[in-house]
Amino acid sequence: MRFFRASTCWCTAPGIAKAAFISDFALGDFDRSLQVNLVGYFLCAREFSRLMIRDGIKGRIIQINSKSGKVGSKHNSGYSAAKFGGVGLTQSLALDLANMALPCIR
């Protein structure tokens, strides 16, 4: 993104899920879910907001989430944790960017 002027809208919908019963859920699989579904969203939103601020563009960051961001899913603890985190992250981004006319929507 650093090589281009920012768009007026950026939409994200990351999603990987590994299904396993909690006692069998490998830490590496849980971490991968968080890295892709939450950390990846954070990194992209951060870079896009930097470009929008730098270029003086008023636009939107839109996060497409999952029902698992509101209600847990059986055998999907990593995915659900990341999606719940995505909802909170979007709400925090909306507050951080409100004064710059950069709405964040989920």
- What is the C-level CATH assignment? Alpha Beta
Contiguous uncertain segments of 5+ residues: none
User: Which descriptor suits the 3D outline?
Assistant: elongated
Tell me the domain tally.
1
Rg measurement, Å: 15 Å
CATH architecture: 3-Layer(aba) Sandwich
Helix content estimate? 40-55%
Order of helices and strands: EHEHE
Please summarize the sheet with the most strands.
3 strands, parallel
Q: Say which CATH homologous superfamily is assigned.
A: NAD(P)-binding Rossmann-like Domain
User: Numbering strands along the chain, what is their spatial order in the largest sheet?
Assistant: 1-2-3
Strand fraction equals 5-15%
Derived from helix and strand composition plus strand pairing, the structural class reads mainly alpha
**Overall average residue pLDDT:** 85
- Total beta strand runs: 3
Give the CA-CA distance, first to last residue. Answer: 22 Å
The CATH topology corresponds to: Rossmann fold
Keywords: Oxidoreductase, Signal
GO molecular function: sorbitol-6-phosphate 2-dehydrogenase activity
Enzyme class: oxidoreductase
Signal peptide: 1-19
Give a structural overview.
This protein has 106 residues and is mostly helical. The chain has helices at 27-55, 77-97; strands spanning 9-12, 60-63, 104-105. The chain has a 3-stranded parallel beta sheet with strand order 1-2-3. Helix 1 (27-55) links the parallel strand 1 (9-12) and strand 2 (60-63). Helix 1 runs parallel beside helix 2 (77-97). The protein is elongated and about 50 Å long. The two termini are 22 Å apart. It comes from Klebsiella pneumoniae.
